[in-house]
Amino acid sequence: MPGTLIDRFKQEPLVPLGAAATIAAFLYAAHGMYRGNFKQTQFGMRSRVVLQGLTVCALVGYGLYSTTGSKPTRKEDMRDIDWERLARESKAAEDADKLRKEQALAAQVAKARQAKTVFAPEPKDK
What we know:
76% of the residues lie in helices and 0% in strands. It has helices at residues 5-11, 14-35, 38-67, 74-77, 83-115. Helix 2 runs antiparallel to helix 3.
């Protein structure tokens, strides 16, 4: 199944390595802070920033590589269109719409004939 974590690690091996190195540098700095070793803390934090930057660069590089890879040509990307089927469906939709409008008009005419007038009835005085 493409897209699993292991497949992604195989496609982009520098990203998990960079993440692991960044975590290791952070833990090295945290250990130095716990022991009170200022130089170890500074070195760990600076290396963490550098490794984190390299990991982000690896992510961007893989992203650019995957988007600029082999793109399908315009002809390969186009789908075949069944123009006859499209014309038949369009004609059927137009006919159904025309029939619906004719039925609505016939219903209005029948209602007007039933009322024997096209005008609204006069209100009766009380």
